[in-house]
Write a structure and sequence with these properties.
With about 350 residues, this protein is an alpha+beta fold. Among the domains are: about 90 residues, Ubiquitin-like (UB roll), CATH 3.10.20; about 50 residues, no CATH class. The protein has nine helices and 15 strands. The strands form five sheets. The chain has a five-stranded mixed beta sheet with strand order 2-1-5-3-4, with helices on both faces. About 25% of the residues are buried.
C-alpha cells in the first residue's frame, strides 16, 4: 500500500471503558460484556448457557456477579461493562446466588451420575461440588418426562443416527437449539411446551441428522445429549487426548482424539478450538470418521489371490509379490500400463509419495 493511500485513511479509534473487577482495573472495548471482560483477564465466571459463538440469552443465571450500587445480582453475560463500574465475581452474595440456582436446577434432575456418560466432564457436577450443594430441601417426587408406553427406568431416546436424548437430565440452557439455528442454520431440534415442562426434542416426525449434529452433544453441559459411539464404552478419565487435524475435509479442522493405551483404541473425536479455522464447530464426517479404523470390514493384513481365493499373507510376502508383478509388467508392456488405487483418507504426504 502506498504512503499516499495510507495518509488518506482515517485513524480508527475503538471506544473503550474502564472498570474494576475483583479489585483489578480493566479496560475493554465499549460494548463488551462483564463476562467476556473477566475471561480476557483470566477471571473465571461459571456458565451453562453461554458460548463464545452464540448470542447471549442469560437463560441459566449461573454467571451472577455483584455490582456496586445495583440492588440485585446481575447476569454478567448480558451486562455491558461501563465506566467506573465496580464488580465482584466471588463475593458471599454471589456464591449464595449461584448456590440457589444450582438448587433449583437440581430439583428435578435425576441422581444418576454413576451411570451418566457425562460423569467426569459434567459442568453441573463440577459446579455442584464447587458450591457445596450435596443435599436437597425438597422431598416431593421429581417430575419425569416419559413417553406413552415407556416402561424403562431411563429416559433414553434416540433422536438421530448418533445422538441419544435424556430429557430428564436437561437443564434448559438451550445451547443446543441455539447453536443448531444460529451456527448451522438447521431446524431439526427444538424446545417444546413451556415452563417447567419445557423439553428439548427432535421435530415431530423427524430426526436430528444435519451435517453438524455432533456439535450439539459436545456443547451440552450435562448428560442430556450423548453420542451413541461413546455411551457406556469408557470413562473420560481413563483416556488421554491426542491433538490432530481432520483428514476428511479440506479445511483441516482441529480435533482431539480420545485414546486408551491399554486397548490401543480411539473412542471418540471432539473439536479443538481454532477460531481461524473452524470456530470450534466440526462436521460429523470429522467427528465420526474415525470409526472406520474400528470397522470389522477393515483389512488388517495383505491379501493375495491364490487358487481363486483371497489368502492372508505377511507384509514381506505381499511386497515381494508386488515387486515381481511390477517388474513383469514394466518389462513386457512398459510402466505406463501400471496403475493403482489408494485411500483418500490418507494424509497428503502418503498421497504424494504414491
Amino acid at each position: 500500500m502506498s504512503d499516499a493511500v495510507k495518509k488518506d485513511q482515517p485513524n480508527v479509534t475503538v471506544p473503550t471503558v474502564t472498570f474494576t473487577i475483583d479489585g483489578q482495573s480493566v479496560t475493554v472495548p465499549k460494548g463488551s460484556t462483564v463476562l467476556q471482560a473477566a475471561k480476557d483477564v483470566g477471571i473465571h465466571i461459571p456458565t451453562f448457557c453461554w458460548h463464545p459463538q452464540l448470542k447471549s440469552v442469560g437463560a441459566c443465571r449461573m454467571c451472577y456477579v455483584e455490582v456496586e450500587k445495583m440492588p440485585k445480582l446481575m447476569v454478567s453475560c448480558m451486562l455491558d461493562a461501563m465506566d467506573g463500574m465496580v464488580v465482584y465475581t466471588d463475593s458471599d452474595q454471589v456464591r449464595q446466588g449461584r448456590k440457589a440456582i444450582l438448587e433449583f436446577i437440581l430439583l428435578n434432575h435425576p441422581l444418576d451420575c454413576p451411570t451418566c456418560d457425562k460423569g467426569g466432564e459434567c459442568d453441573l457436577q463440577n459446579l455442584t461440588f464447587a458450591h457445596g450443594v450435596d443435599d436437597s430441601r425438597f422431598d416431593f417426587k421429581k417430575y419425569r418426562f416419559k413417553d406413552e408406553g415407556m416402561t424403562t427406568t431411563f429416559d433414553d431416546k434416540k433422536i438421530g443416527p448418533e445422538i441419544m436424548l435424556n430429557r430428564n437430565r436437561c437443564i434448559l440452557c438451550y445451547k443446543c437449539v441455539r447453536s443448531n439455528k444460529q451456527a448451522f442454520g438447521e431446524y431439526d431440534l427444538g424446545a417444546f411446551e413451556r415452563g417447567n415442562i419445557t423439553q428439548i426434542d427432535a421435530v415431530p416426525g423427524g430426526e436430528v441428522s444435519n451435517p453438524f449434529s455432533g456439535n450439539l452433544v459436545e456443547i451440552c453441559p450435562v448428560g442430556a445429549l450423548t453420542n451413541s459411539d461413546w455411551r457406556y464404552k469408557i470413562r473420560v478419565w481413563l483416556t488421554k487426548t491426542i491433538p490432530s487435524v481432520c483428514n476428511f475435509t479440506s479445511s483441516g479442522s482441529n480435533i482431539n482424539f480420545y485414546k486408551e493405551d491399554h486397548q490401543n483404541k480411539i473412542f471418540r473425536v471432539t473439536s479443538r478450538t481454532n477460531n481461524s479455522i473452524d470456530n470450534g464447530w466440526i462436521p460429523d464426517i470429522t467427528r465420526y470418521g474415525y470409526q472406520i479404523i474400528n470397522s470389522p470390514d477393515r483389512l488388517q493384513t495383505p491379501l493375495i489371490k491364490k487358487d481363486g481365493k483371497q489368502v492372508k499373507v505377511s507384509w514381506d510376502e505381499a511386497l515381494e509379490h508386488i515387486a515381481k508383478k511390477y517388474n513383469s509388467i514394466k518389462e513386457s508392456v512398459g510402466r505406463v500400463c501400471i496403475g493403482g488405487l489408494i485411500s483418500p483418507s490418507l494424509d497428503n504426504r502418503s498421497l504424494y509419495s504414491f
